[in-house]
Design goal:
alpha/beta; Rossmann fold; six-stranded mixed sheet; four-stranded antiparallel sheet; transmembrane transporter activity; ABC_transporter-like_ATP-bd; nucleotide-binding; ATP binding; ABC transporter-related protein
């Protein structure tokens, strides 16, 4: 069974008297452990697709299954539960709270989940160690580089052991070398069984993932898996 399955998914929005067709009959499956990029120009529907996949919204019509659960018509509470239990998010702007330490930022999702203080600290430290920032736990975001802040954001996305991580333009605010390091980290997480889905407008970024899902005018026009050696991955030389 695919981890993510969309069948004839349509999403329409109304802006005043105008109706916008954002997604037009999307069929898509993503398996556990895949590392994929959703790519398309501005206005193509890729952000709308990520919002649906991330259980931030529901389709106008069609069927959407996440980990075997039909969320096509789920309530706000059910969507919130799915996000908390199965999904992690990483954003271009990091979305860290500047007055909190690295440890406190990573602990935040577990506070919302009602996890005890002791377990929060233990799980946060495990996630921080996975992104190799254990020597920065007492620092605030303003004391970190862009790459370090993105690693904190990834650690925060990992603490609830999600099945899927969605990353929206995760290298957009990073230099090329740091961006390569972040992409390599995502690859390592995928190898460990976590499903990673990037959303990007950058074809060079998408070319470094084993699978590319291209969307235009609300339709998927290409969904191919690529040999990572041919995709440019072998040319990456990230540094820790």
């Amino acid at each position: 069974m695919p981890l993510i399955e969309l069948i004839d998914v349509v999403k329409r929005y109304k802006i005043g008297e105008q109706e916008i067709l954002a997604l037009d009959g999307i069929d898509l499956t993503i398996d556990q452990g895949e590392y994929a990029a959703i790519i398309g120009p501005s206005g193509s529907g890729k952000s709308t697709l990520m919002h649906l996949l991330g259980c931030l919204d529901t389709p106008t019509s069609g069927t959407m299954l996440i980990d075997g659960i039909d969320v096509s018509r789920a309530s706000g509470n059910k969507l919130s539960e799915m996000r908390n239990q199965k999904i992690g998010f990483v954003f271009q702007s990091f979305n860290l709270l500047p007055k909190l330490t690295v440890l406190q930022n990573v602990e935040l999702p577990m506070i919302y989940a009602g996890v005890s203080a002791r377990e929060r600290r233990e799980r946060a430290m495990v996630a921080i160690e996975r992104v190799e920032l254990q020597n920065r736990v007492k620092n605030t975001p303003l004391q970190l580089s862009g790459g370090q802040m993105q690693r904190v954001a990834i650690a925060r996305a990992l603490v609830n052991n999600p099945r899927i991580i969605f990353a929206d333009e995760p290298t957009g605010n990073l230099d090329s070398r740091t961006g390569a390091n972040i992409l390599q980290l995502f690859r390592e997480l995928s190898t460990g069984g976590c499903t990673i889905v990037l959303v990007t407008h950058d074809a060079k970024i998408a070319a470094q993932t084993p699978r590319r899902i291209e969307i235009r005018d609300g339709k998927i026009v290409d969904s191919e898996s690529m040999d990572p050696l041919l995709s440019g991955q072998a040319q990456l030389t990230p540094t820790k």
